[in-house]
Structures are given as structure tokens and as C-alpha cells.
Protein: Kinesin-like protein
Amino acid sequence: MSTNRKRAHTPGERGKSKHKRSDKESLEVVCRLTPYEGNNPCLILADENTVECTPPVGVVQRNGQPNADKVYEFGRVLDETDTQKDVFERCSVDLIEHLVAGKNALLFTYGVTGSGKTYTMTGSSSRNQCGILPRTLDTIFNSIQHSVADKCVFFPTGKNAFDIRDKREAREEQRRYRLNSQEKTIDEDRFIETKKVDGYNDDYACAVFVSYVEIYNNYCYDLLDNGPVEQTPPSLDVHMDANQMVYVGKLREVEVSNADEALQILAQGDTRRRVCDTLLNKESSRSHSVFTIRLVMAPSMEEELYPVQDASRIVVGQLSLVDLAGSERAKRTLNTGDRLNEAAKINQSLMTLRQCFEKLRKNQRRAQQESVPYRDTKLTYLFKNFFEGTGKVRMIICANPRPDDYEENLNVLSFAEESQSVETRKGVDRLENMGGSRPPVPRKFYAGWNHEIDRCRPPALLDPLEVFPWEDVNRRSDDISMLREYSRRRGEEIGDDQIHILLNGLGEGLRSRLCVSDYEGSIIEELKVKEEELNEQRTSDAALIKKLKRENASLRSRLLVYEEDNGDRVEMEREMRRVREEENERIRVQRGRVEKTLEIANGGTSTVATLRNKFNERNEMTEQQIGSEGRPMREGKMADRNGYYDPKFPGTSHRRSQSASRVLDHQPTHGIPTGNILRPKMPTNSRKTRNLKADELKSSAAYVLTHQEVDDEGNISTSLIKGDCIPTAGGGTAVCFNIIEKVTHHSPTKATTRL
Ligand SMILES: Nc1ncnc2c1ncn2[C@@H]1O[C@H](COP(=O)(O)OP(=O)(O)OP(=O)(O)O)[C@@H](O)[C@H]1O
Structure:
């Protein structure tokens, strides 16, 4: 790995701006890496927020320089180990919470062609491959199921708004709807997500509307158009409503009562979507698709799940799931004709998206606001609501680590990383708080009882003033039989004609109470399930706590042992330090002594130096005289100049005692007899040795080593190597050699021959 790694942004910089306000939040980016089994992936997950980008071998920059490794940081990085469910949980669940709270959110995928955008957004119907969109639809309906009003109660006005029908109109519209609706084919085998989010306000009745738009070659088409699939529907215009919100005019918004219906609509729309086989993806999206889920909510009537007919109290939450077409380079796809034109338009709209982001970031930094080029493409115009209105925006970057995608991935990643500093306004709570009264009873609970109540009619009832004992209606299984018995008894007492008057009053009251009781029963059931789940969770938490406590105890005891060991170790280290310091001190003292001794030995004092010089001078003379003149000096002179001892300079010897030998004469083990008159003279108290011992040196003041050599011509040279014995700091004796005397004996026969 190159050390030349560049950090595109530090984590602190990400998503921050100077003027960050609490009503703003940053666009969040999640990066998903496509599974890749080849060699040399150009992208790898470094940690859960970082992706590392390594250039493939041989890829260099335009200037010929090698590309550096780079790291990019995102809100989260997911790789092949993260499942479709993980991606859904991380990217969509909080947006669904936004939606059920009446806020807006935009989730879009972005990346190079074939990087897994459609797979991530839609996937397939199996458990493992089910993508964000189907899971989101399931989760929405799981979370609002008791509050969904009957169909046709809410309706879109066509001007980006909704209204509410009164009950009679709604019933008529429902009848028409039933007549026109076709048999639905539901995928029985599809995976169903069971997730549910909290946060829906039960005081509201709601309806879900979906729409599906395709932006192809910068034209908007309704994928839910009712016309024949073979025909391209007319392109639709994008408008702005009275609240400055952008919407697609004449777009079909289809009301759905459950996720199955919504998925069927999605599948219907997909049959119209333009997908082609390209070199880089067998099913390449040639257009951007925008699937929008609108949750329309209005405060419900007191007892019944029917919205109060006041359009001004309607709150609409919107979640748009966008699958962008992938950016692609013509030289890689080798596209021509229509495909090339499509690619150009795709790239142009993606480029405009980048320019909008850049402008938004610039505007965030400056007081002076420049206009953002939303209108340049249909895609960016549709996104305007989210960037300038209220809503959370999240981008999923899909990136394939194959080396061929390296350069395009770099573009995508750096754009995505910069985008994280774009801020959008946070959604505000628009739902009214109804003061915590009991939620209205969903209509489906009424339907169950209607039939039963009607069966109570035959027996006559009595005086309408006589009150049915409602307070006893609390165990639902007994309610009907009690009413039957009551009616039978009273029917015997009064005539049949009275019965209808009484029944009407009774029926409504009974119906309402039974339904409420039924609804509450279902809530109790749900709470029981929740309680069981919580109990299970508590049991497993308790087991975990127990296990953690055990581990904690064992860690504590191990820690104690370590601490004791550590105490011993500290003590030992202290002792070692003390010994080392003592040793250092001893060495320091010894070194001082040695230095002093050396100073003395090397003539550190002037007296010693002078003596040594004189001594050396004399010895040199002796050698010159013997070597140059080639004849022996007179014996008397020799005695004075032997170089070993001069009583005038007692400081030059190192005698230990007066009785100690002053000169140690070290003779060769096998001396060569020269038969010569020229013989070195030793002082009388010198001691001869052939096998030198340390003790002998110690007791001597001077040392002379006799060394003999014979060359090929029979010449003998005898060397006397002389030195002073000096006691060393360690108690031994060193010899400091200071003169060599040489006597040479030439062979007369050889010398004559040479002449
Ligand atoms: N995470 C993944 N796990 C398994 N298969 C994947 C994954 N991501 C992508 N694929 C497979 O890769 C292929 C291309 O994916 P997909 O069609 O989603 O790419 P795309 O980004 O939408 O391409 P385009 O922009 O051209 O439409 C598909 O066959 C898809 O099943």
C-alpha cells in the first residue's frame, strides 16, 4: 500500500458549515460496495465510515504521475457482508419514521452503470434480495395499519393537494372503483418485511398514494399511465404550486390499501420503464425513476375512523425513492445511436445535479445567494422541494470495486463526499396533538360486527326508554347472546312494530361499543405480544448481565494477580536500578583511576615527561652507536647506559621494594649461541627467566625481552626490547615498551661471497 495516501476530507470537515443552524441537517451519504471476486479491487472498506481507493497497476494521472491512494469518509460504508436488510435498516427506516410523522424525505442511489443501484433500491421478491422499496412499503403499512381509512375518502385534487369526500360521496366513489378495478395478481411467494416503526399519530385517519415517474432524455413520463404499454405516454410538465412546491402535472396518483397493492402498481410501472442490455450491464436503466409514496393524514372523527372534513387540516408526508440511471463513458460502453444519446442525457442531468450541489454549498458559505440551476433538468427540478423545502435527503453511492471502474468511481466518490456538506431544512412537526384521547376505531372492526348485530333483529324489544344494561357489555363472547336473550324476553312483552325503533338506537350503540371493545382487544393482544417480546428480551438481557458480571469478576481477579506481579516487578526493577547505579559508580571511580595511571604512564606531569625524554634520548644514542659504528662500546660506558636504571632518576623505575629485582631478563627458551664478544650487559640484580610469570613482572621495575632471528644467509640479529613495568588499576602489571636495541652478527663467509 502506498504511503502517499490522501485524505479527501477529515471527518470533522464532513457535513459541517460555518453557519450551521439547528433547523438544518446535512445530506447524508451511505456508500455500498458491490461484491467483487476478481483480483486487485480498487475499493475496499477500511472501516465502517471509510472506503479506501487504490489505483490499479499502470493507471497514471494525465500528467504521467502515479495516482495516490485515497480515502473517503461517509456516514456509513457497507460492503458485500452487508445484506439487503442491513442496507434497508441503515438507509430507509428513519425516513419511514419521518414519513409517518408527516415529514418529507428523499432517498436516491447514485453511481456508475452496473454498480448495483437498481439491485439496492428494488432487488427481487426473495428474502435475500428484497430491496429497499418493497421493504419500505411493508414497513409503512405495518406502522399505520389501524389508521388506514377506506378507499376513496381522500382524493388528489390534481394541484399537488388532497381533499376529503363526505361519507356519501365516498361510498359512491368506492362502488365505482370496485366496478372498474381489475383482479389483482399478488405475488404470494414474495418476502414480507415485518418491521414496524413508531411515531404514527393514531388520532389521524390516513391514506397512501403512490406515483411512479420516469425521466427519460429529460422528459417526464408517467409509468402508471393507463394507456397501452406499447405506446409511449405523453410527456408531462413540471409545475410549481401555490406553496412554491414543484410537482408533475397530470400525474396519476394511485391510492393503495396495502403493500401488495403498491408492489403490484410498481411492477406495472416497471413494465414501462426503459431498460436495455449494454456492454456493462445486461439490464441497464436508461432513465431515472422516481417512486413517490405520499401519506395523506387528517384528524379523525371522535369515535369512527373517518377524517374530519376539513382540507386545511390535512397533512401530507412524502417519501421519494429514486433510482438514478448510472453515469457511463461512451468509450467503455461503445454505445451508438439512441443508447449514446440516452447516455449523454443521463450524464448531463447528473452533471446538473452536481452543479446544483456546488451552488448550494457556495450559498451556504456566503451571504449573497446565487440561483441554483434546478430548472436545467427535470431531475434537479423535481429534487428542488427536498433541498429548499423541508425534508431529509440521503444518497446511496453504489460502487463496484472492479479496476475498470476506478476512474469513474473516483469522480462519484469525491462528488459524494463533498455533497455531505449540503444542508437541507429539517422537517417540522405538523400533526396536531389531540390530547391523548382514545384513538378512533378503524372501520374494519365495524365490518366484523355488522352481520352479527343484524342477526339480533327477530326478537322484539320493549319500550325504547328501557335501557339495555350496557355496563355489562365487556366480555365480547357473551355480548351477542346477552342481547339475544334480552330481545327475546322483551319481544314477548311488546309488539313487533316497536322493535325497529328500539333496534336502531340499540344497534348503533351496541355496534360502537362492540367495535371499540374489539379494537381495544386487538390493541391488548398487540401489547401482550410486545410484553412477551420485552420479557424475552429482559430474560436474555438478564442472562447477558449475569455472564458479563461473571466475566467482570474473573477479569478483576486476573487484574489483582497482574497488579501483584506488577508490584513485584516494580520492586525488582527498582533493585536492578540501584545495583546498576552502584556498578556505574564503581566503573566511574575505576575509570578515574585508570585515567590517572595513564596520565602518569604517558608523562602527564612535567617531571615524568622530562625524565622520560632524557631516558629515551640516551637509549636512542646507544642504539645509534651500536648500529652505526658496528663496534662495541667500552664496558665502563655500557654500565652507565644500559637504559634500565639510573640512580639519578629513581622515579623511572617502579620497584615495589628495595629487595625486588629491578630488571627482569626474559631470555628465549632456545637461545642461538653467537660466540660473539658483543653481549648485552644486564645489571647485577637482574633476574633471568625463560618462562615468564605474572608475579615476576609484578616484582620487577623493568623488563627486557631478548629476541633472536637468523636469516637465509646465516646472519643473526639479536633484539633487546626494553620496557618499564607499571602496576595497573586492576592489580596486574603492564609493560610499557620504550626502546629496542639491536645487535647484528654478519656471517663472514656469506659477506665475502657477496663482495
Ligand atoms: N450487492 C449486490 N449483491 C449481489 N448482486 C448485485 C449487487 N449489486 C449489484 N448486483 C448485480 O449486479 C448487476 C448490476 O446491478 P444493477 O442493475 O442494479 O446496476 P445499476 O447500477 O442499476 O446499473 P445501471 O445504472 O446500468 O442501471 C445485477 O445483475 C445485480 O443483480
